[in-house]
Amino acid sequence: MHLGGRLFDDLFYRWYCDLNPGKEEELRQNGDDFFVRVYHCREWKEKFSQFMAKGTKKPFAYVLGEYGKVTGITWDDFLDRARRYVPTESFVRFQAESGSPLPERLTNGKTDLLRWFQDSLESGLKDARIDIRDIHVIALAGGSCQWSFIGEYCREILQNEHFFRSNQPYATIANGLAVLPALERDFERKKEELEQKLPTFLQTINEGISRELGQARSRIVSKILVELYDGKIRPILLDFRGRGGTVAKLEADIGREAKSFEPRINGIVEEEIVGGMHALFGMVLDNVRKWLKENDLRMGEVERHDGFSAGKIDLGRLDPKVAKSIVDVVNTIVGTIIVIVIANICGGGGTALLLGGPLGLLLGTVIGVAVAILAVSVGKEKATEMAKSFTIPSNVSPIPGTRVNPLNAILTDNRVASCRTDMAKDLTRKLEESSGGILREVESRVDRLVRDEIARLSIVNIR
Q1: Residue 433's CB: how many other CB atoms inside 10 A?
Q2: Is 442 exposed, middle or buried (0-12, 13-18, 19+ CB in 10 A)?
Q3: What 8-state DSSP symbol labels residue 419?
Q4: Beta strands in 137-259 (DSSP E)
C-alpha cells in the first residue's frame, strides 16, 4: 500500500517554493525541480520529522545546498499545510509522464494528507485481507515513522498498543532491501513447489468434498423419511389398514400430506446443505492454511479462525469474491437438491410418489385386494375399473361365521417398514444420479479458490 511518502515530499517542495517566490519556475527552466523535490525536500522532511520528534515547540531551519535555506518552520505550519495540500505542477507532470498519474481526488482541490494516510492504511489492510486481530506487534521503520501522527493513527486504526520504532530507521530499511532479493528467490521457489504439489492436494480435497456431499445426501434422506414417512405417511397407512376405505382417498390423503410437506423440504435441504457447505469450505480453507504452513508459508486471514470446529465459516472475514463464490455455489446446490426431492415426492400434485417408486408398488398391491374382492361380483375387467373407488372393508367373511381383515395380509408391519427402506434407497439413488454436476461445480469453485489463494501469496506470507 502507498501511504503518501512522495506526497509529503511534494508538500515540502511547495512549501519551499512558497517561501522562495519565483523559484519554482526557475528550477523548472533549469531542469532542477525534480532533484530539489526528490532529494533536498525529502531530506528536509526527514530532518524536520526527527527534530519535531524531540518536541514541537521550537521552529526549525534547514539549508538546501546551493538552492538556499528555509527558516522559522513550525509544527503548526506543517499541520496546516498538510490539511490543505495541493500538488505542484511539476509533481503532477512527473507522475503523468512516468505512467502513474495522480488520482483525481488529489488533483481536484485541496487534500488533507493526514486523512489520506488514514484512508490509505485502512484500505490497504482491507485489500490485503489483513484482520487487525491477527496483528500482534507493529514495527515502525523508515524516516516517516518519526512523525508523531503515524503512531497515533496506528494505535487508533489497528487498535493495538504494542508497537515500537526502530532506533535506526534508515538502517532498518537498508537491511530490509539487502535481504529482499534472497526472500524473493526463496518465495518463488516455494511457490513453484506449491504448483507442483497442487494436483495431489486438490485430489485430497476433492475426496473430502465427495464425502461431505454424500453425508449431506444421507442426512437429507434420513430427515425426510423420519418427518414425512414416519410422521405422516405411515400413520395414514396404518389407519387405512385398521379401518379400510377407498384407494382413491388413501392416495389423496398421502398426496395432500406430501404436498404440505414441500416447504419443510426447503428447510431440510437448507439446514443440511448450507451448514454442510460452509463447513466444507471452512475445511478447505483450513486445509489450505495447514498445507501452506507445511511449506513454510501462511494464509493470514484464517490463521486464527474459531469457527471451523463448529462447522461454520465467517464469510465476513474472507475476500468478497471468495465469499460470493461460496454463497453462489451453496445456493445452486440448495436449489438443485430441492428440485430433485420435490419432484420425487410432491410432483404432479402429489402423484409422483404414489404412481412410481416403492409406495406406488405397495398401493398397487392394495388395489389388487380391491380387484379380488370386486371380481367375485362384477367380474375382473369391471373390477379393475372400479378398484380405486371401491371401499375395501376392514373385515370380510370368506367363510360363514369368520371375520378377517384382508388389509392385514397386505399392509403388514414388515411390508410398511420395507417400503420405507426402499424409499430411502430410491431417493438416495436419484440424488446421487443428479449430484454429478453439483460435485463438479463445487470442485471447480474449490480449485479456483485454492489457485487464487496461491496467486495472492507474496513474500509477506513467508513464515
Answers
A1: 9
A2: buried
A3: H
A4: 138-140, 163-165, 245-246
Q: Which residues pair with 62 in a beta bridge?
A: 70
* C-alpha cell belonging to residue 2: 502507498
Question: How does pLDDT run along the chain (463 residues), one tens digit per residue?
Answer: 355 678 889 999 999 999 988 888 888 888 899 999 999 998 999 889 888 888 888 999 999 989 988 999 999 999 999 999 999 888 888 888 888 888 888 888 888 888 888 888 888 888 777 778 777 777 777 766 777 777 787 888 888 767 777 677 667 777 777 887 887 888 788 888 888 888 888 888 888 888 888 888 888 889 888 998 899 888 988 888 888 888 788 888 888 888 888 888 878 877 777 767 777 777 777 888 888 888 777 665 443 333 333 334 444 444 455 455 555 655 666 666 666 565 555 554 444 444 456 666 776 777 776 667 766 666 666 666 676 777 777 665 454 555 667 777 778 888 888 888 888 888 888 777 776 777 777 788 778 777 877 777 777 666 6
Residue type, 368: G
Locate all alpha helices (DSSP H) within 225-261, ordered by sequence.
234-243, 247-260
Find out whether 242 and 394 touch, Cβ atoms under 8 Å: yes
Q: Answer for the pair 79, 152: CB distance below 8 angstroms, yes or no.
A: no
DSSP per-residue codes, 93-125 = HHHHHTT-PPPHHHHSS-B-HHHHHHHHHHHHH
pTM for this structure? 0.54
Q: Is the dihedral of CA 410, 414, 419, 420 positive or negative?
A: positive
Spatial distance between the Cα atoms of 360 and 190, rounded to a whole number of angstroms = 60
Residue with cell 455455489: 329
Nearest-angstrom CA–CA distance, 49 and 294: 43
Q: Which residues contact 236 (CB under 8 A, 6 or more apart)?
A: 250, 253, 254, 257
